[in-house]
Amino acid sequence: MSPISAPSEAVKRSGLRPVACVAFAVLAACGGKAEQAAPPPPEVSVVTLKTQAVPLTTELPGRTTAYRVAEVRPQVGGVVLKRLFTEGGEVKAGQPLYQIDPATYQASYESAKAALARAEAQAQSARTLAERYEGLVAANAVSKQSYDDAVAANLSAQADVASARAALETARINLVYTKVLAPISGRIGRSSVTEGALVTAGQTTALATIQQLDPIYVDVTQPATMLLRLQREFASGQLKKVGEQQAEVKLKLEDGSAYEHAGKLQFAEVTVDPSSGSVTLRAVFPNPEGLLLPGMFVHEQIQEGIDETALLVPQQAVTRDQRGDATALVVNAESKVEPRVLQTRRTVGDQWLVTGGVKAGERVIVEGVQKVRPGAVVKAVEQGAAPAAAPQTGAR
Asked: Which fold has domain 68-199?
């Protein structure tokens, strides 16, 4: 190698050092940018729990039942001449509903009246004879036997009068029964017969049915344990009382609307089914507008009291594990996710009433549960809070 070429190699080697330094600096700068580009913690929506006063109600499904039901049947037989009511309308107790041909019953009444008159005339003659013989027997003008016969004839005539009077009353009742009257007030259904139909006394087919709908019953079926709990709450004063052994209840109609009139829960009208162990709770509701009809499906609401320190957790935040336990995810003070097992008591609207597992002030995740896991760091945003303003960008 020539002496002139040695310095050129040294120069080449020394020239590589600045290039290597520049490359190292570039790689270091790239590594710093990679660290700064780490993804931010996932954002979740949370609800901060707090105690509140919550009215507790029990909602029981049931059906309406008419307060009173009367099936109209004829007391006498005959041909129906007239129908005296409008189907589906309101009728009053004692109002005529049908007119049965009264001709034969009118004739029987007149015959019974004549028989009574004849019996009364014979009784008058027998009484006069007995009174006359009473004076004569004292003077030995007639025999004692004749007097006794006159007294017996008088008593027999009086009995005939009583029998004739009873027959006349029976004829009068049958004549009255030719007008079929409404036994109760209420709404009457359709008629099963028309004019010209032949009806008989005591027939199995009812001519019409009348139902009293004001007030009206609401019957609900629940396990016997429900009845025992309601009775305990009633005895302790938790249930609002409206009378002797009666608790106030409200009603929700099948379309979800609230019924404006409050009712009374009657514990006395409860029967237990021995085969199923269920009980029927009966409540009475006023129905002045006739809005409730028999057979309607309704929900009966019983207010059990007010929990002054209730803790409610949204249902969307609660899931079930493999054992069926209610669980939820909580964001702790370090912004880390913690799983909790909850003790739930009942539902209140769209929330769970919780008695254990969480406490007031803790944050429960309601949205974003799928993108986090226990122990992960998250960014908690209160549900319903206004979103943070996006950073403004522009050319410098």
From this structure: OB fold (Dihydrolipoamide Acetyltransferase, E2P) (2.40.50)
